[in-house]
Amino acid sequence: MTLEHWLNAELYRLLLVFCRVSAAFMLLPGLGEGQMPARIRIIAGLVVAYCIAPLAGPATAAPGVWGSVAAAALEVITGAFLGTLSRILLSAVQAAGQIIGQSIGISNAFAFGIGMDNSAVLGAAIYVACLVALFAIDGHHLGLRALADSYALVGLGEPLPSAAAARSVTEGVEAAFRLSMQLSMPFLLLSVLFNMALAGINRALPAMPVFMIGAPALLLVGLQLLQVTAPSFVAEVLAAYGPAIMAGR
Question: Are 237 and 179 in contact (CB under 8 A)?
């Protein structure tokens, strides 16, 4: 192989690896946030693609224009799939925050938060806390490791196995729903019990402004419960993030 053909093959392999990495970086937690500058994301994608390109298999010559376009599209789909798995799991935090906020009266259906999907303020705050803890314990390395190991299952320029991908997404949605319900269950029970107590008080004392008294009391008790359970939120999310992202490799 001449130097020209070798260089073309290496650049083609690097391009395909960059397509998978950059697509994943658009969705991975932290790197895929709207506040992340696109220039930083592109530079990080180039660096990571250069590092893991030797793991993607031997470099081959580009199969023509349309063949290269098709291979790049397949790589983008694979990278987006890997990023979606991690995004699905952490979306459970925002869903739980929405449920918690509505249960204790701190959320509103028309109030927008600080997240990229405009979730409730409480859910966005818990989501940011989970992101900080994830990067503090080097949890983002799991996503990079999954990208590097994904070439052992899906070769360079090969289509994503539809059956395995559908199964992984289904399991991820199931885990996210279960996690969101587990995190918000104490607040749902508090809301039900508190509203039942208010209904009994209103039945016994119709003239008492139950809502004026009960809403601040529910908010106070809910915030106290959130203070007690918030550390376990982060621990549960971090414990579920690792197995979920590694299962989608």
Answer: yes
CA-wise closest residue to 31 among 50, 48, 53, 15? 48
Count of domains observed in the chain = 1
C-alpha to C-alpha distance for 9 and 13, rounded to whole angstroms: 6
Q: Which amino acid is it at 184?
A: S
Cα Rg, the chain, nearest whole Å = 23
Question: What separation, in Å, do the N-terminal and C-terminal C-alpha atoms of the chain show?
Answer: 33
**Residue 122: closest CA among 230, 206, 246:** 230
Q: In this model, does residue 108 exceed pLDDT 60?
A: no
Q: Quote the CA–CA distance of 150 and 187 in Å, as a whole number.
A: 39
State the residue range of the domain holding 136. Answer: 3-247
Closest C-alpha to 249, from 174, 176, 177, 164 = 164
Lookup: tokens for 180: 């969101």
Average pLDDT, the chain: 79
Per-residue H/E/C for 155-203? CCCCCCCHHHHHHHHHHHHHHHHHHHHHHHHHHHHHHHHHHHHHHHHHH
Q: Tell me if the pTM is above 0.90.
A: no
d(CA 61, CA 162): 27
pLDDT tens readout for residues 130-184? 788 878 877 777 778 888 888 888 888 788 888 888 888 888 888 888 888 888 8
